[in-house]
Amino acid sequence: MCTRRLSDEGQRKLIAAGTPRRWAPGQILIREYDTTDHVVLIISGKVKISSAASSGRQVMLALRGPGDLLGETAAIDGDARSATVTALTDVEAVTLTAPDFLRFLTTTPSVAVELLKIVLSRLRESTRRRLEGGAYDVPTRTALLLLDYALEYGDENNGTITVRMRQVDLADAAGASREAVAKALRIFRDAGAVRTNRGRFEVLRMDVLRRYAEALT
């Protein structure tokens, strides 16, 4: 089981306890610094997690998709939201208020254990991203991110995996300038590994992209 998201059984139990919600592309599910405390379980669709930089610009931190649970930290500790969650596509989800979520965890210990594993997995992911930012060059970080996003959140069709995100968001996630990431993407395009379009990337050859990541690390 992928420890980044709830198991199928965990999702079924949480869906049964939650309230259905829908968001259109561009709508905000959770806003940074808000004092709301509900949790969101994504059933379908993709969202991006972002945080405000000192300049005020929203910097993308991660992608999330079906099976991912959002907002659980604020529901547990009662603190303000630490990031903004924005719909990239049409999103179907269920929500629970903090009191309902906490009661659910106490009566469903198997899901509580899953949640602990998810939190630990995200901590490891954050640590790995920081390590990559300091140890690898921009093409390496870009290749690693595209591989990760394609495997976890890509939509596959006839061997092509589409990752829906903007180039500026990919640059934010890589901790690099948009120009540096554009140069890396040009290398991958010339090798036939990716195709770029407005608002999305198409991974054509995972094996070629993986060789770039492995060769450069």
Automatic annotation (TrEMBL):
The keyword Cytoplasm does not apply. Pfam families: cNMP_binding (PF00027), HTH_Crp_2 (PF13545). Residues 136-207 form the HTH crp-type domain. One of its GO terms (molecular function) is DNA-binding transcription factor activity. GO terms for cellular component: cytosol. This is CRP-like cAMP-binding protein. It comes from the Bacteria. PROSITE patterns: CNMP_BINDING_3, HTH_CRP_2. SMART domains: cNMP, HTH_CRP. InterPro entries: cNMP-bd_dom (IPR000595), cNMP-bd_dom_sf (IPR018490), Env_Response_Regulators (IPR050397), HTH_CRP (IPR012318), RmlC-like_jellyroll (IPR014710), WH-like_DNA-bd_sf (IPR036388), WH_DNA-bd_sf (IPR036390). Keywords: DNA-binding, Transcription, Transcription regulation. CDD domains: CAP_ED. Residues 2-122 form the Cyclic nucleotide-binding domain.
